[in-house]
Amino acid sequence: MIQEVVIQHVQPEKRDEYIQVFGDILKKANYAGSHGIRFFTSIEDPSRVILMIEWDSVEAHTQHRGTPVHNAMREATSKYQTVKSDGAHFVMHVVKE
């Protein structure tokens, strides 16, 4: 399993709406190979949002890029963002649970 971690900046007054819209789209898309979806909102910077999605592999994630569902998701969520997203894939190393 790998984690997709995306740091996003959105209009602070629209942050909750953004998470609701984006979360609903991700749930309905039901991308093959995706598992847990989590949003983190910054306490210190209300415009900052982190999205984490667990994927079977990088390939499981990237196979969806450019599909009509993916493109519609990008179009619907981009209007909330104030800065281009910064994301990458990571392997989790658990120290303590």
Topology:
Blueprint: E1 2-10, H1 15-29, E2 34-41, E3 48-55, H2 58-62, H3 68-78, E4 81-90
Helix pairs in contact: 1-3
- For the termini, the CA-CA separation is 17 Å
Query: Helicity level, as a percent range?
Result: 25-40%
Number of self-contained structural domains: 1
The top-level CATH class is Alpha Beta
CATH-level-2 architecture: 2-Layer Sandwich
The parts where pLDDT drops under 50 for at least 5 residues are none
Main sheet record: 4 strands, antiparallel
Question: Strand-and-helix sequence, N→C?
Answer: EHEEHHE
Overall geometric form: globular
**CATH fold description:** Alpha-Beta Plaits
- Sheet-strand content, in percent, reads 35-45%
- Work out the radius of gyration: 13 Å
What would you note in describing this structure?
The chain has 97 residues and is α+β, with helices and mostly antiparallel strands. The chain has a single domain, classed as Alpha-Beta Plaits (2-Layer Sandwich), CATH 3.30.70.100. Helix content is 32%, strand content 36%. The longest helix has 15 residues. The chain starts with a strand and ends in a 7-residue tail after the last strand.
Name a few traits of the molecule.
97 residues, single chain, Alpha-Beta Plaits, alpha+beta, globular, 3 helices
Q: Short summary of the structure?
A:
The protein is 32% helix and 36% strand. The chain contains three helices and four strands; from the N terminus they run βαββααβ.
